[in-house]
Specification:
The complex is a heterodimer of chains A (about 120) and B (about 110). With about 120 residues, chain A is mostly beta strands. Chain A has strands spanning about 5, 10-15, 20-25, 30-40, 45-50, 55-60, 65-75, 75-80, 90-95, 105, 110-115. Chain A starts with a strand and ends with a strand. By secondary structure, chain B is mainly β. In chain B, about 0% of the residues lie in helices and about 55% in strands. In chain B, the strands form 2 sheets. In chain B, strands 2, 4, 5, 9, 10 and 11 form a 6-stranded mixed sheet that branches. The chains are: A mainly beta (about 120), B mainly beta (about 110). The interface of A and B includes residues 32, 45, 97 and 108 of A.
Chain lengths: ~120, ~110
């Protein structure tokens, strides 16, 4: 089945630094990947849609300069949280879907970001 | 704008009981509906995917139904086990896009 690998699974960083999270589709190509954010006891909120070879599409209220997304290949999308602040601490999850709507979405294992 | 609601927010049952989780959505123009399981601090595991043209899907002890006209889906879990304890999320598409909209989930606890 479709597998999405996400790294790191957790990261602690200091305020003001940047953190990069990787999302890879291991056994399929994904022209589109999605990045979500999940606060404690809340559901997933879509942050942006990552499009291979073009700019990401951000949801309303998400700062594109703070959450940089790069989708340079059909199997890799990265999310960089720039100049991180404690309020950016959250659980970030990526997802991708194999071609054709007959397939559902596969999610990565998530990244727990803590900014201190 | 699609809105997804899940009821109940939490459910605690004894082992062996059959149970039903409910999901409702406001916009019936969906491509599909997907049920996920999330363990604490983990990512999402896909359980069942129902295409908009389908009425139900089954996998082992799980059965999911879809009624587009009424904007409802149910996840039926037969003979629940302690290992089924997790948060169950329902998600469907928004309008004509591929974006998934999630409910807030039902936290299930199955007691031995």
């Amino acid at each position: 089945g479709a597998v999405v690998s996400q790294h790191p699974s957790w990261v602690i960083c200091k305020s003001g630094t940047s953190v990069k999270i990787e999302c890879r589709s291991l056994d399929f190509q994904a022209t589109t990947m999605f990045w979500y954010r999940q606060f404690p006891k809340q559901s997933l909120m879509l942050m942006a849609t990552s499009n291979e070879g073009s700019k990401a599409t951000y949801e309303q209220g998400v700062e594109k300069d703070k959450f940089l997304i790069n989708h340079a290949s059909l199997t890799l999308s990265t999310l960089t949280v720039t100049s991180a602040h404690p309020e950016d601490s959250s659980f970030y999850i990526c997802s991708a879907r194999a071609a054709g709507r007959a397939y559902g979405y596969t999610f990565g294992s998530g990244t727990r970001l803590t900014v201190v | 704008k699609q809105e997804v609601t899940q009821i109940p927010a939490a459910l605690s049952v004894p082992e062996g009981e059959n149970l039903v989780l409910n999901c409702s959505f406001t916009d019936s123009a969906i491509y599909n509906l997907q049920w996920f399981r999330q363990d604490p601090g983990k990512g999402l595991t896909s359980l069942l995917l129902i295409q908009s043209s389908q009425r139900e899907q089954t996998s082992g002890r799980l059965n999911a139904s879809l009624d587009k006209s009424s904007g409802r889906s149910t996840l039926y879990i037969a003979a629940s086990q302690p290992g089924d304890s997790a948060t169950y999320l329902c998600a469907t598409t928004q309008g004509g896009s591929e974006k998934l909209v999630f409910g807030k989930g039902t936290k299930l606890t199955v007691n031995p």
